[in-house]
Amino acid sequence: MAQPITSLTPARFDLAEGAVWDDQTDTLLFCDILGHAIWAMDWETRELQSWNFDKTVGSFGLCADGRFIVAHHDEILLVDPDTQERELLGQVEADDPRTRLNDGKVGPDGAFWVGTMDDRSPRQPIGSLYRVAPDGSISKVLSGLHVSNGLAWSPDARFMYHSDSSTGVVTRYAFDKSTGALSSPEVYLELDNTLGRPDGATIDAEGNYWSAGVSAGNVNCFSPDGELIKSIGMPVPRPTMPCFAGPGLDHLVVTSLKPLSDTDLMTAYPESGSLFVMTPGDKGMPTFHFG
Question: How many helices (H) and strands (E) does the chain have?
Fold first, then answer.
């Protein structure tokens, strides 16, 4: 039986991404990268509010003190959602106009992990992955990436997953929660346009890796051994990130983008740019906080 998938929002977002569940307020948060905004949706009422920025918002995370840590094009900001006060933690590749900040998440080490991507086409391997430590220091962890993406951690925090969307490779690293150190990289998945190249990702409570197959209109679930468990076709061709949400973490929310450069796709799929929700029978993991 096909999984029922319903729309959570109107198709108002150019590039919805970076969904985060806040269990303190029962709020789903996400960003519109090209819309230069972070959005929050009250889970019960479905009411939306937003915070606007000057440049692209590649991703963001929740802080232990209630603020957001935001990947603002080439800056890392701390933003108070109540007062709008913004603190600059540092700049990332600000001297390279070819790149921008992209996918990022707070890890089990309390750090904000965020990567960059080549913002041109065709993309070149000039992106990197950075770790923003709880003390605000920023260090480069990986380089040679086209589009840094797909961050997730195993439930026991022993492994970190990371993808390069252009190559389709998802790599798994041994992860040291106490230091954030990565070691023993191994190829976990090699994906192409059949299932969809890997975009945003999440982990469920059983350690299965959920990846948005952005080039094939699927959300794919893989076992810790890399076996395909399920591939769910979405109502739109460009899903961008899955996120477990809801008070029981038993709903899967999927963000999507508008294929603005493809008139035929835009016409055929008018719901592109919406957020969607389903209950796949799996549960997610609690959100980590920066600090």
Answer: 1, 25
Q: Is 199 a catalytic residue?
A: yes
Q: What average pLDDT does the chain have?
A: 97
Q: Which candidate, 212, 216, 257, places its Cα nearest to that of 31? A: 257
Instruction: Report pLDDT for 2.
Output: 57
Residue with tokens 């990022």: 104
CA 6-7-11 angle, 5° bins: 155
Distant-in-sequence, close-in-space partners of 177: CB < 8 Å, separation ≥ 6: 108, 109, 157
Quick check: 1 pLDDT over 50?
A: no
Catalytic residue among 82, 199, 204, 282: 199
The CB density around residue 128, as the number of other CB atoms within 10 Å, is: 19
Token pair for 153:
């951690």
- The CA angle 242-248-251, to the nearest 5 degrees, is 30
Strand 57-63 relative to strand 289-290: parallel, antiparallel, unpaired? Answer: parallel
d(CA 162, CA 173): 8
Distance of CA 165 to the CA centre of its chain: 12
Residue 214 is encoded by which pair of tokens?
């952005």
pLDDT digits (tens, 9 = 90+) for 167-201: 999 999 999 999 999 999 999 999 999 999 999 99
Q: What is the pLDDT of residue 6?
A: 97
C-alpha to C-alpha distance for 160 and 171, rounded to whole angstroms: 8
Token pair of 55, please?
């440049």
Identify the H or E element spanning 184: strand 182-190
In terms of C-beta density within 10 A (0-12 exposed, 13-18 middle, 19 or more buried), how is residue 34 classed?
Answer: middle
Q: From the CB of residue 45, how many other CB atoms can be counted at a distance below 10 Å?
A: 7
pLDDT of residue 207: 98
* Model confidence, pTM: 0.97
